Amino acid sequence: MNAQTKNELAALHAADEENANTSGNPSLLDVLEQRLSRRNMLRVGVGSAGAAVFGSLAACGGGGGGAAAAPAPAPATSGPTPLKLSFAPVAKNKDDRVTVPAGYTASVLYALGDPLTSATPAYANDGSDTGFGDRAGDHHDGLEWFGLDAAGTARLATGSERGILGINHEATTDQFLHVAGVTANPRPPAEADKEMEVHGLTFVEVRKAPGYAYQKDSAYNRRVTPLTPMELTGPVRGHALLKTKHSIAGTQTRGTINNCGASFTPWGTYFSGEENWVNYFFRSATDDTARGGAAAKGVVSLRRYGKNQGAASRHGWETAGADDRFVRWNISQTGASADGTDDYRNEMNTYGYMIEVDPYDKVQAIRKRTALGRFAHEMGVFGLQVAGKPLAVYMGDDSRGEYVYKFVSTAAWNAADANPANRITTGDKYLDAGKLYVAKFNADGSGSWIELNIANPAIAGYATYAFADQADVLVNARIAADAVGATKMDRPEWSAVHPVTGELYVTLTNNSNRKVEPTGSQHGVDAVNPRSYTDAPTAPATPGNINGHILRVRETGDESAATTFTWDIYLFGAEAGMDQTKINLSALTADNDFSSPDGIRFSQKTGVVMVETDDGAYTDVTNCMLLIGLPGRLGDGAVQAINYTKLDGSTLTVQTRVGARPTLDTLRRFLVGPIDCEITGITETPDGRALFVNIQHPGETISKANIGNPAMYLSHWPGNAGYGAGGATARPRSATIVVTRDDGGLIGVDGTAVLNNF
Ligand code: FEO
Ligand code: CA
Ligand code: CA
Ligand code: CA
Hints:
- By secondary structure, the protein is of the alpha+beta class.
- The protein has one domain (about 5-50, about 80-155, about 170-750).
- About 15% of the residues lie in helices and about 25% in strands.
- It is built from eleven helices and 34 strands.
- A nine-stranded antiparallel beta sheet has the order 14-15-16-17-18-24-23-20-19.
- A hairpin with a 7-residue loop joins strand 14 and strand 15.
- Helix 2 packs antiparallel against helix 3 (about 50-60).
- The longest helix has 17 residues, at about 30-45.
- One calcium ion binds near residues 538, 575, 617, 618 and 620.
- The site of one calcium ion has 4 residues, from loops.
């Protein structure tokens, strides 16, 4: 047993002592051994499997990923056996590698710069590479698997041996993209072009033979960039707010940017959210006046979306030259026209949507679905499909104090559309007409969806902003949501819907603005965002929701179109040792404690929940991670009061609703990533036996001054794992990995009652 494992068990012990519900203090190792060995005996009988489990426990944090002895075959059973988590929890660690349980293998599949064609040179990874239109982009984020038949000629929803991966390339670690790091403004055109081109999406074919590998030269391989033509569809198409010099009709735009989470539509297309697009645009210091002053509608809108005049752009692409592909990033009102068709004052209104791409068809134009509103779309996930009922899409707006939204289609679901002849026009049918709602949460565990409709007097008569029409409501969805009093949330990130119960889970990653006694633009604690605390002794020392939580919602009557719901909190992120009356409300232990949940997905095969972290608060102890759990149902926990002492000495009590506390049987850490990364993006093959995960921006903290000094890089992954050029001194690269079980089994669980936990 190495030191780290000893510490882990000591931490387990300490956490357990703080749990008032635990009587006695047996050796935690004894308890763990008993639990694991009993489960193993029940599952696969005694023998080599038991040895493998204990081998993996000893290997946690030190030797994960190694081959394990093949488990004994499962004995014949007379009926379905319940699903059980079947891996030893991975220890928190700060290693510069991907750690998975013993008996699993994590392999790099597709990293920044990897060529998509045979004619594209191998990635040198020294800043000299070009031609990213045929290479992997940067900052892999959301991803999704789309099955192919054996011949690779057609969609096969159940295809697990051959498929197309859709991948979001959210952002960039610019210093590593150039030989000597980033050149300041004015940006050299070649640098700006490269930085643009590494954004967008990848579609790449993947085959299993026998391991999973991406295929160069597949006809499905495709990069989408910020220059790829896109159609704006739905109610805002052609509206005055979308007219630009590029599209005077207001029907098209170029490209997509900062694509964060991803999901799939019920008809087999890729569904991706445009998140922090605001940061890419430049706005001059005198633009308020140019647009008619601070009270002008256009200025109110820009400010609400975080674009004050004088705001710099993230990359300075607008400084790279007079060509239109650079100029478009300057949204200042510079033209003389009344309608904006001679400049790019409206360009930002063509970003901030859910986009839909048919991964099987390069010809059909990519759609930006304006009916689903414009905000910092993390991603969107569909509710369960019921024939004859409308479809629901749930969406988070990831910024401090922003909202949770739901779109409900006008069209009722036709099961034949699960495999339509034309996927993208099926998307037109369901996603271009419907109602957009925003969530309001009540302290008693109920809530309502408030429609964002121009007919609502609270919207039509809103003093802050005079909405012109419903298209204006959709483009300025945040302002309409303000008008109806939606609940300000702790940064809604990914959403996921349980494939059996239909319950919605939303990660609320953290919120440094959540306070007991808020001032200014801060947010007060409430039932659904109930925590505000400090993380002493380590930073951040100012109070807020440091570690985030995961919201759970059940629609009234389990109806997609319901306008009321109930809610509770599935999990509160926390460090295992934190106070269980105020902070560690879910009583997390060393085996499953986490901070800043972000990615979340249910296996469509087994129903396990997978939670990923994008954290900066617990990174003094561990790199970001992925946990696997067997979730319960809304209401399986209890109401809990949190008492705060206000500055005047009085007590403020917040009543929240905590889901059933997880145990080692229901939540375990499955994977820990390399240094300075975010774990994000998650999908699986339909057979549930291969898991794809994205490792985003390992070692992203790097200055221009240190770009020539590999000793100063925080991470060298995946070069240090033997992938690509550079070896132990490589520049770090974002990458998609594939995780499989050495015995070919289901990821994370054993049992035969798949999707049958309820
Ligand atoms: Fe791109 Fe909210 O994470
Ligand atoms: Ca995210
Ligand atoms: Ca995040
Ligand atoms: Ca801490």
